[in-house]
Amino acid sequence: AKEQFMFAVNEGNFELAETHISAALSENPKDIDLHLLAGDIFIELGKFNKAVETYRLAEKISRKPNVMRKLAGGLSMAGDFPEAVKMLRKLTVDEKKEAENWIALANVYVLADSIGQAELAIARAREIDKNNVQAYVILGDLYFKQRVYELSKDNYEEALRLNPDLNDARMKLAQSYYW
């Protein structure tokens, strides 16, 4: 089942992959990466509650920061912002030197329309890692959402300067130029 699941994922056929998730997870109950990938597939399909269920199974296996960030992201997409913020706040206290935790928190704040809190979280991420590409992308997203297109353009350009392979940032940069 895992091979069929992985084949469908690699082919980009997420609907087919979804049909193999249950069997693949049953065969591999301790495979954390498989659980996270299955949750990601549910996110891609817009099934946020199913993604949260799958990430919670992963949390039972491991409470590493990457698992907790995935779970918090799923919770925020499912609309449970308070729990996502609480979870990520704990991570930012426990794992102070991981910019990814602050960026995940900023993403939740952006989804929850807490602009000021998102800016503070991004600032903390940039204090920890000045060359973190995601910090520039999320800041560009934040400014784009506020319709401050010049600042969104500047941040997408900086992200692309650090990593020219970011197609998503390139598309967002084009939209900023347009507006």
Walk me through this protein's architecture.
The chain has 179 residues and is an all-alpha fold. The protein is 80% helix and 0% strand. The protein has 11 helices and no strands. The longest helix has 14 residues, at 14-27. The chain starts with a helix and ends with a helix.
Short overview:
By secondary structure, the chain is mainly alpha-helical. Helices cover 80% and strands 0% of the residues.
Shape annotation? globular
Provide the gyration radius in Å: 17 Å
Query: Helical region count?
Result: 11
Percent of residues in helices comes to over 70%
Order of helices and strands: HHHHHHHHHHH
Unreliably modeled segments: none
Total strands: the figure is: 0
Query: Which structural category do the helix and sheet elements fall into?
Result: mainly alpha
The major sheet is characterized as:
none
Strand content: under 5%
User: Termini, distance in Å?
Assistant: 47 Å
Mean pLDDT, nearest integer? 93
